[in-house]
Amino acid sequence: MSEGPSYRLDGQVGIVTGAANGIGKELAIGLAQAGADIVIGDLPAQREQAEDTARQVRCAGRQALVLDLDVTDLASIEAVVSKAVAEFGKLDFIVNNAGINIRKPVLDYTEEEWEKLIAVNLKGVFFCSQIAARQMVKQRRGKIVNIASQLAVVGMKDRSIYAITKAGVAHMAKVFALELGPYGITVNAVGPTFVSTPLTTSMFQDPRFIEENLPKIPLGRFGTPRDVLGAVRFLLSPAADLITGHLLLVDGGYTVM
Ligand SMILES: NC(=O)c1ccc[n+]([C@@H]2O[C@H](COP(=O)([O-])OP(=O)(O)OC[C@H]3O[C@@H](n4cnc5c(N)ncnc54)[C@H](O)[C@@H]3O)[C@@H](O)[C@H]2O)c1
């Protein structure tokens, strides 16, 4: 009898954006442990942390390529995709993980802050997906995963622009899935709950944040980068070959209320 669907990524090659820190770092290492070679794309200022991710990918027995990437700059994205293909000969997946946040009341945001959040969280995901997909179309296969958030489906005070961008990348998975499906490319999104990372250090240091938000999670704990890895790894694996246009929430039930 056959063993059933595979959850492994042996022989695959993928890009993880924002893989120098936090969730992206865990994704890069965990996807390497599942068998994939990883291209680590992050800002030049994060080079040292990116090299640390690469070291851990290599410890898992896979190849790692560290490349400077600014997801708001199309030339930079083009360079990363073409160097990845030049090095490995193909691109099986991209995880659009790079993201930022600026937390403020709706009444206080500036136009500059709007532009910054939209540029990284929304434009960045669109063009990373588009440029990666051009390579995947040639191959007639590929998988794209956008890291959204539970705030793609519910609101939260002081996170309006962020929530708008995350709803955008969840919906982007649907519209890309529609157009790229005929080329054998799946496009999905993952929506984590609160996870302690450099992005959320100030939140997790605030006892009021914990008091107010922990009770809203039916499973009774916050997320970890490893929890996010579980969902991403599944969506990239052969076991998820027929799953596309989906938002997979990893939120402990935060959004069921
Ligand atoms: N931490 C959470 O609670 C949480 C919850 C839900 C979703 N997310 C999402 O998960 C993703 C990762 O978040 P994290 O918490 O690990 O954040 P993080 O700040 O720890 O890591 C984000 C990484 O993205 C990189 N980055 C930022 N701007 C970039 C750009 N222009 N080009 C390339 N790289 C860039 C950063 O240098 C950093 O290495 C983000 O999309 C975030 O919105 C996080």
TL;DR of this structure?
The protein is an alpha/beta fold. It has helices at 22-33, 47-59, 74-88, 111-139, 160-180, 201-204, 207-213, 225-236; strands spanning 13-17, 37-42, 64-68, 93-96, 142-147, 185-192, 247-250.
List keywords for this structure.
15% strand, binds nicotinamide-adenine-dinucleotide, 7-stranded parallel beta sheet, 44% helix, 257 residues, alpha/beta, Rossmann fold
Give, in spatial order, the strands making up the sheet with the most strands: 3-2-1-4-5-6-7
Distance between the ends: 42 Å
Question: Which percent range fits the helix content?
Answer: 40-55%
* Backbone structural class: alpha/beta
Integer tally of domains:
1
The rounded Rg comes to 17 Å
Q: From the 3D structure, determine the CATH topology.
A: Rossmann fold
Mean pLDDT: 98
Number of helices: 8
Largest sheet: 7 strands, parallel
What is the CATH class name? Alpha Beta
Named at the architecture level, the CATH assignment is 3-Layer(aba) Sandwich
* CATH-defined superfamily: NAD(P)-binding Rossmann-like Domain
